[in-house]
Design a protein that fits this description.
The structure is a single chain. The protein is built from 4 helices and 4 strands; from the N terminus they run αβαβαβαβ. By secondary structure, it is an alpha/beta fold. The protein has a 4-stranded parallel sheet with strand order 1-2-3-4. α1 runs parallel beside α2 and α3 runs parallel beside α4. The longest helix is centred in the C-terminal third of the chain and has 13 residues.
Length: about 110
């Protein structure tokens, strides 16, 4: 069992660079909690296979605008990118996230 609130409290006291949350299936509600608690030191964040949908687009865009250290954000294998990975370049959510990561100037969206 993954306790998001306890994890968020832990983040406040550590320097975290890499965080891989692959396969936790926390969905949009869990993502909101996670992104609000990510420390400003994070450089690489992997959120594969977590049932993240288009409902989280604004939350992720806000996170990308605020975070100044993130180098890589991996959202593969989530519904936000659609069913077909090959078609993701035409996915509107992916395009918006890609644009936000470019504006950030340091983040590569995977």
């Amino acid at each position: 069992y993954f306790n998001f609130l306890e994890t968020a409290k832990l983040f406040a006291n550590i320097v975290l660079l890499f965080y891989d949350l692959t396969g936790n299936l926390f969905g949009d509600a869990g993502l909101a909690i996670i992104l609000e608690s990510i420390p400003p030191t994070i450089t690489d964040l992997t959120l594969r296979e977590n049932d993240i949908t288009e409902s989280s687009l604004e939350i992720i865009l806000t996170f990308l605008r605020k975070n100044q250290t993130l180098q890589t954000l991996d959202l593969n294998d989530n519904p936000i990118y659609g069913e077909n990975r090959c078609m993701r370049q035409t996915n509107k959510c992916y395009q918006q996230l890609q644009e936000a990561s470019k504006q950030n100037g340091i983040c590569e969206l995977i």
